[in-house]
Amino acid sequence: MLVQNNIPLAPLTTLRLGGEARFFISIKTTEDLIHALEFCKKENLPYFILGGGSNTIFLDSGFPGVVFQIQIPGIRCLDATESHTIFQVGAGVIWDHFVEYTVKQGLAGIECLSGIPGSVGASPIQNIGAYGQEVKDSILKVECMTPNGEIISISKEDCKFRYRNSEFKSGIYNDCIVVSVTFQLSKLTPPCLLYPEVQKAWEKYKSEISVSELPSSELRIFQMVAVRNLVIQLRKKKSMVLDEHDPNTRSAGSFFTNPILSDGETERFLETAKMFGFDNPPVYPELPGYKKISAAWLIENSGIQKGSKYPGGVGISENHCLGLINIEGTTSALLQMAESVRKSVFEKFSIRLEMEPVIRP
Question: CB–CB of 191/223 below 8 Å?
Fold first, then answer.
């Protein structure tokens, strides 16, 4: 196990922000992780778990302890039947590589999560989701290491997944380190077309091609790959796919989560929106008694425009108002801009947006 000193953190995040880590350890096996935890205990140092860096914000001062970058590899098939395939996947596997791998086998369950940056290990923590799918619906269990070096297996039910949250992010397992995730993907379920944007793109695509001559086995793979490609195209239009040639992708993806309001809060929001001339703002069903409000709609209708520049070298993406981007700035400037956006939304609609990325001091 190699312990490195004073490693710049900015290149390890999609925002390209943050100072240095006092110590840095690359974790490629569970044995590495055990030794790293022992090092932290011996030196009495805090540690932070870093995956792909797409949902992490480091302060300009850096991190005073040890950063573990999880790079545990491996995609292992545990079971395959006529209806499904089960995989155990190392936490360090790049998420979109795993999605592509499964889609090319005609497997359904995570195709609409194509193009999301980050690692497999981060997917259950955040319960990543997009275009009508959430990763929780394909997870069977999550394997973790406790701070004392014990490997535990946590069932899907015990993860208590909810919208962009889980017991790993804000619950009893938040001190556990994900080492692998076990997924069950379907050979029978059709590709997910629940989201209107995806459905519209799919219908247009179908009208332009002819696949009637393909055998059924090839047709399924063709459909799955096509939906994946359509999702990636939609994300690219919003600068939500990492691209070194697109400065709008120097972001943490969607910076704010969609607010979840009770029915009573939703009614008050609709009344407020109507006062400003908005008769039908987007409201989506969530859990019983709750509705989901579009954070993007709230931002845009609070007077904040795409492409806006803020002091300190930061701004709003030209292609999606949920993308807060680093132009040539600092973490401090980014967080000031984020608070300015939240203030604008709150002053107009009395709704306080919650940040999606994690800030590490």
Answer: yes
CB 129 within 8 A of CB 139: no
pTM of the model: 0.94
> What residue type is assigned to position 305 of the chain?
Q
Interhelix angle for 331-349 vs 263-275, to 10°? 80
Catalytic residue positions, numbered: 164, 254, 356
Q: pLDDT digit string (tens) for 107-153?
A: 999 999 999 999 999 999 999 999 999 999 999 999 999 999 999 99
Nearest Cα residue to 62 out of 23, 18, 24, 25 = 18
Distance CA 205, CA 198 (A): 10
Using an 8 Å Cβ cutoff, are 89 and 183 in contact? Answer: yes
* Amino acid present at 357: P
* E strand spans, the chain: 3-8, 20-27, 47-50, 56-58, 63-70, 75-80, 84-90, 129-130, 133-134, 139-145, 151-155, 177-186, 260-262, 283-285, 290-293, 309-310, 314-316, 324-326, 358-360
Over residues 169-186, mean pLDDT: 97
In whole angstroms, what is the distance from residue 289 CA to residue 237 CA? 34
Residue with tokens 């004392």: 148
Residue type (1 letter), 329 = G
Long-range interactions of 271-280: CB distance < 8 A, separation 24+: 272/348, 272/349, 272/350, 273/349, 276/301, 276/348
Residue 209 scores a pLDDT above 80: no
Question: Mean pLDDT across the stretch 65-90?
Answer: 98
